[in-house]
Amino acid sequence: MLKIRLRRQVKYxxxxxxxxxxxxxxxxxxxxxxxxxxxEELSLAAVTALYFVLLPxxxxxxxxxxGAQKPWKMLxxxxxxxxxxxxxxxxxxxxxxEFIAWLxxxxxxxxxxxxxxxxxxxxxxxxxxxxxxxxxxxxxxxQFAAMAQPEPSAETVxxxxxxxxxxxxxxxxxIPDEKRLTLGLILATEPASWYxxxxxxxxxxxxxxxxxxxxxxxPWHALVVIVGLMAASAVSYxxxxxxxHIAALFVSxxxxxxxxxxxxxxxxxxxxSLYQRADKLIINNGMWGFMVVDFTQISxxxxxxxxxxxxxxxxxxxxxxxxxxxxxxGRGEANAQLIFKQPQVYYGAMGQLPxxxxxxxxxxxxxxxxxxxxxxxxxxxxxx
Length: 384
Known about the structure:
The protein is an alpha+beta fold. Helices cover 52% and strands 15% of the residues.
């Protein structure tokens, strides 16, 4: 039986997504078109509390605090709740959220500028990909994600003295200009997709030193996904064409264009999931996430069988909440473990959800070959 083990941050993200969908659907069903009695006013108050109290509070704790995200991302849930209020509230109340409608004009202008910049970056990225020897996303990371460590605060020092085994916040690699890094990774995903999808562009790519056991590396999986996208494109066009021809073309075209991303995801998963570039180890979880680890930051590479963080925590007689978060990359039981001297950043969700980790479990096809190939100054501890 296949067991899916989710890390704590991922569980809370999924829980918040499901709760958010349920709250908005409930709001559209509970709210009347007009306020005529006390019961309808109470429904409005309850939905307002869900929109602007419950969801922001849970987003702050589940996503920002537990998921270690930036506080400015609170604007996402607040703006989304304002939009849902504009669409679902009774008319006499929804008019107070009319500013959302006025905001569409500057938003459209900004989106047009971003689209123009995106097109220019795509053309430039494709041109540079002719002679590129690596992932375009790595250039963005090298430009914006290198910075000296800050001085630890008094609160951090006190917390470290209470729980010395837990990774300190002073060790977390800070990300300077985090917004530029996030936008840069979004833009870099496009040329990276072309770079990996077309073998001619990636012909000078460094050779792999190992391979993660990824489902996306299977040819049948790529074929199923591509056929599914083609079918979804045809169905969406037939359903939307009667409503809006432009919307039908946009949605179906977007689904067809996603085939390029799926092709890149297949090739990077199959051929370039683990490779060495200069003095760094690159770990690719398909196109969806990656790590760039300096060899000097690797403390130890262990071979063996490694259980989930919860099981490991129970064996060490510590609570799961106190146990360090461990990311497992690959499908199946982990057979290799990387331990870092300082937390390293995993750029998940195409770089939009960065996480700092001190331990990463890998499911590789040949762990011993990986250990023999890596030219690292680390101690190899083979577990039975």
